[in-house]
Structure formats: C-alpha cells, structure tokens
Amino acid sequence: MGRLSLAVLISGRGSNLRALIDAAAAPDYPAEIGLVISNVAGAGGLEHAARARIPTRVIGHRDFPDRSAFDAALDAAIGAAGVDLVCLAGFMRILSPGFVARWHDRLVNIHPSLLPAYRGLDTHARALADGVRIAGCTVHFVRADVDTGPIIVQAAVPVLPDDDADRLAARVLAAEHRAYPLAVRLIAEGRVRIADGRAIVDGAAWAGAGAGLLNPGG
Ligand code: GRF
User: Fold this and answer.
1) Closest-lying ligand 1 atom to the alpha carbon of residue 12
2) Which atom of ligand 1 lies closest to the CA of 88?
C-alpha cells in the first residue's frame, strides 16, 4: 500500500507543518504531504513547503464572497490533489459544517490545550490565569463545533512557577511537534477507529512510550 497523502492547511509560521515534513522525510513514515494550502499569502510555513518541494496553494479567504465559497475552493484544491487526510496546522479559519461533514473522519486538527479544556484562543494565558499545573496539546478529528471531536493523541507538559504565556507556549509547541506526527502515523497505519464518538487507538499502551504522550482509548 502507498503512503497516506496529506493536505496541510496553514495560516502562519508553520512549525507543525515543518514537524510533519521532517517526519515524512523518513522512508518508513507512512504518510507524505501532497499539498500545502495557506489562506494567507506570505505565511512562513509556505517556505518550509517550498524548501521540501511540496506543492503549495494560496487560497485567500478575502477573495471569496462567503465562507461556503471559500470552503468550496479549498475542497476543490484538496480533491484535485488526491488527498486522503486533511491536517489543520495553525489554520485560522473556521470551516463550514458542509466542509467538515464532507471530510468526516478525514480531517484532523492540533490544538494547544488538553481538550476539552480551553477550547478557542489564548489557551496558555487562560491556563496560567487558572493556575493549572499541567498543560499540553491535543490532536483530534474535527467536528462542526470548534475544537471538539474524537481525541487521537494528547501530550502533557508541566506549568512552571515562572511561566508566562510565551514560555508555556514554547514548551507546549515542542510537544505539539511530537504529537502531530505520531497522530498522523497512527491514522496512516490504520490503527485509529471511531466508536461512540471516541477515537480508539490500537496498541495505544505503547504508542506514546518515551514521548510523554497519552493516547486515550487504548
Ligand atoms: C499551534 O500552537 C497550534 O496548536 C495552533 O496554532 C499554532 C500553530 O503554530 N492551532 P505553527 O504555525 O504550526 O507554528
């Protein structure tokens, strides 16, 4: 069987995209990136893609009259590229329910909190304001409600006494860069299935070993 083909959607610096590019550079990694789409011209992540000779598209949301027209353009580009799985990686647009339904269980996102805590923006500042001791990130299948959907991989990091939002974000981001390639690997290996609205990961007891990762459902 060939490698799973990914489209990665970005809006900014693209460090998670770069983590996926680096993972896919290994010959035994079961996925490859067929297309990178940014809704922002000049997004830093486009350079990571170009350096890796991955095709890129800029599809600017402002060029479309409404969300569904923008999403239709995304869908057409992704469909034409023969993509199996769409990965949101710092993509700062909310996708329409129609797009989410069309890519049901083939659309994943990374979020910088341990969901279901801290959906939405400013996760690190809110976590610090609450005085939590553990922070982290979540890779999950996308559902119509923002930052919900079956959890595939989570990674936890400590919150340290002198943290500010930037320091905590940097620690979580390092965990994101391990969690996203792992989650894509698990999907590409056919080890993730959905039951009762939860993602079950075969072999989850060892999948995150050594990486500090927690895979629910195993
Ligand atoms: C990450 O923190 C990700 O969890 C969130 O947006 C940020 C994107 O960072 N969804 P990058 O563009 O991948 O560096």
Assistant:
1) 12
2) 10
Whole-structure pTM over 0.90, yes or no? yes
* Domains of the chain with CATH codes: 1-103 (3.40.50.170), 113-139+151-218 (3.40.50.170)
For 78-138, give the DSSP string. HHHTT-SEEEESS--SPPPHHHHHHTTTSEEEEESS-TTSS-SS-HHHHHHHHT-SEEEEE
Active-site residue numbers? 111
Q: What is the pLDDT of residues 30-54, one digit of tens each?
A: 999 999 999 999 999 999 999 999 9
Q: How far is the CA of 168 from the centre of ligand 1 (A)?
A: 13
The alpha carbon of 90 and the centre of ligand 1 are apart by a number of angstroms equal to 4
